[in-house]
Amino acid sequence: MRLALLADLHANREATEACLSKLRKLGFDRAVLLGDIVGYGADPEWTVDEAQRLIDDGGLAVYGNHDEAVLRDAQADAQSTKHAHAQAAIDWTRGRLSAAQRAFLAALPASIEDEDRLYVHANAWAPLQWGYISNALAAAQSIAATRQRVTFCGHVHDPALYHSQPEGGARHFAPTPGVAMPLLGSRRWLALPGSLGQPRDGNPAACCALYDTTRGSLTLLRVAYDHHAAARKIAAAGLPESLAKRLVEGR
């Protein structure tokens, strides 16, 4: 089976369409959405509906922290620690989603175990506390918290790959986009495909990945799309200018 891995769509229709077009040309059997379907971008209704379509076609999806945030009430928002610009996008998004779309997000699980794989937005040790896997120590903690051999996470907007070491801990590996990386069965792995909707590694091209379960290989992909158009839509919606700028700069 070939899995299309899509993380942190962040209501970016242009990036989502470009990645799905690329992935369909390459061929995949099931889409896996790793959380944060909404937030930051100008097309939350479309991305929620597209997520529903992918699930209807046999795909899987987990809950992200921005998905959770749009379902909270105003009183809970007062306790939020989110950056003001992120909170502004959440408030705006909340007013755009229908009751059915909100119910869809609310029904998503925090994590999914699928054969030897774990799908989760943030990490395996506390999926709903939203801790980041930003280094090898955190990767090792997540790997140790699950029995699954391969973990796929979103949340971190930079693509990365970690593997277990015989002496303990984890090691970071930077795969080359477009090149299939064998995830050796003698190791345990944690893969961060990177953000589809808001990359932050200095490259505005959208991130996604393909995992071949038969070959045990992972291919990270970078997909160019019209990020200027997506940025203009953010500005036209009255959302913070910094969110548009991030798409253009990829930071």
Q: What is the rounded distance between the termini?
A: 33 Å
Across the major sheet, the strand order is 3-2-1-11-12-9
Provide a count of the helices: 9
Q: Averaged pLDDT, please?
A: 93
Count of distinct strands = 12
Low-confidence stretches: none
Percent of residues in helices: 25-40%
**What would CATH call the class?**
Alpha Beta
What is the 3D shape?
globular
Could you give a short account of the major beta sheet? 6 strands, mixed
Q: Please trace the helix and strand order, writing H or E for each element.
A: EHEHEHHHHEEHEEEEEEEHH
Estimate nothing, just give the exact number of structural domains: 1
CATH architecture label: 4-Layer Sandwich
Rg, Cα atoms, Å: 17 Å
Please state the structural category. alpha/beta
- CATH homology superfamily: Metallo-dependent phosphatases
Strand content: 15-25%
CATH topology: Purple Acid Phosphatase, chain A, domain 2
What features would you describe in this structure?
With 251 residues, the protein is an alpha/beta fold. The protein has a single domain (2-249), classed as 4-Layer Sandwich (Purple Acid Phosphatase, chain A, domain 2), CATH 3.60.21.10. It is built from nine helices and twelve strands. The chain has helices spanning 13-26, 44-56, 65-71, 74-77, 84-94, 99-106, 136-144, 227-236, 241-249; strands at 2-6, 30-33, 60-61, 111-114, 117-120, 150-153, 160-164, 170-173, 181-182, 189-192, 206-212, 217-223. The strands form two sheets. It has a six-stranded mixed sheet with strand order 3-2-1-11-12-9. Helix 3 (65-71) crosses helix 5. The model has no long low-confidence stretch (mean pLDDT 93). Residues 1-214 form the Calcineurin-like phosphoesterase domain. It holds the Pfam family Metallophos_2. InterPro entries: Ap4A_hydrolase, Calcineurin-like_PHP_lpxH, Metallo-depent_PP-like, Pesterase_MJ0912. This is Metallophosphoesterase family protein. Belongs to the metallophosphoesterase superfamily. YfcE family.
